Amino acid sequence: MKTLITGASGFVGSAVLRQLIKAGHSIRALIRPKSDPRNLAGLPVEIVYGDLTDRGSLDRAMVGCSALFHVAADYRLWVPKPREVYETNVTGTRNIMLAAMDAGVKRIVYTSSVATLGLTPDGSPADEETPVSLKDMIGHYKRSKFIAEVEVKRLTSEQGLPVVIVNPSTPVGPRDIKPTPTGRMIVDAASGRIPAYVDTGLNLVHVDDVAIGHILSFERGKVGERYILGACNMTLKEILFTLAPITGQKPPKICLPHNLVLPVACVAEAWAWLTGGKEPRITLTGVRLSKKKMFFSVEKAKCFLGFNPRPVEEALHEAVDWFRQNGYVR
């Protein structure tokens, strides 16, 4: 079986790629010409170059493929040009889904995000059916992924798109080369650069378990359904205190009010604008998101897919080890 995967050079995509190889798929990876290829080194994969906004390159990449894993996304909480996020996450997703249908692809797994899901008022774990609307989406990343998932569902119901949707929570582990916002937090914790924290929470999961969940969704998932791929709900304080013995650093003891952090985020974003620098470590969107705990239930994936994630401590250990071995922690 020839399988096309997008985003294979990235954090989640490279993990999915490795699981596809284990499962016996013949892989073609679509990457952009400027993508960092380190996560593909030494793997038996056919690499083709293209862009989600270039429909012609997608049609060429899809030739001969009977399956698609669309993992690629623009995951940035701060962007100087928000249009780029929507072009990749919304227009790009629509483009590749239409290309897959035209090519007669039989099975698709689309990587969405828990960012598109609703949250409960009391902070208890939400699930795939928790009510949500576009007005609940904070920031361009969440909005773009929400709109993209709506479009995928529309194509499924109206045109028979053979897609299963997965909603990963917050993956951690090796090969986070960018790194992701969560990866940066782990690097900062390992470097002793987190003096305080805010009252928030995340659902953490090993990136390789997210990848296994993709394969299970491909093999057992129901077309049109979505499945949360997560593991453990933890407050930020619990995450940092779990990291402390792994990193050898002392955990922060000061909990800052969200409204006290907002001015810091304003300054950080203003400096990034003025200097044309990278995404700031503290963003307005990040602070606003942190006002709610992103806790989720993974019971649907466990029940219908046989999803069985490992303890999250293993993911944090492997993440810290990888960052150290690759020079991110000094």
Stretches with pLDDT under 50, minimum 5 residues = none
Mean of the pLDDT scores? 95
The assigned structural class equals alpha/beta
Task: Please bin the fraction of helical residues.
Answer: 40-55%
Strand percentage lies at: 15-25%
Number of strands: 12
Account of the protein in words:
By secondary structure, the protein is an alpha/beta fold. It is globular, with a radius of gyration of 19 Å. It starts with a strand and ends in a 5-residue tail after the last helix. The mean pLDDT is 95.
Question: What are the key terms here?
Answer:
three-stranded mixed β-sheet, Rossmann fold, 15% strand, alpha/beta, 12 strands
Concise description?
The chain has 330 residues and is of the alpha/beta class. The protein has helices at residues 11-22, 55-62, 82-102, 139-159, 181-190, 207-220, 236-247, 258-275, 284-289, 299-305, 312-325, and strands at 2-6, 26-31, 46-49, 67-70, 107-111, 163-168, 170-172, 196-197, 201-206, 226-229, 232-235, 254-255. The chain is globular and about 55 Å long.
Topology:
Elements: E1 2-6, H1 11-22, E2 26-31, E3 46-49, H2 55-62, E4 67-70, H3 82-102, E5 107-111, H4 139-159, E6 163-168, E7 170-172, H5 181-190, E8 196-197, E9 201-206, H6 207-220, E10 226-229, E11 232-235, H7 236-247, E12 254-255, H8 258-275, H9 284-289, H10 299-305, H11 312-325
Parallel strand pairs: 1-2, 1-4, 2-3, 4-5, 5-6, 6-10, 7-9, 8-12
Antiparallel strand pairs: 9-11
Helix pairs in contact: 1-6, 2-3, 3-4, 5-11, 7-11
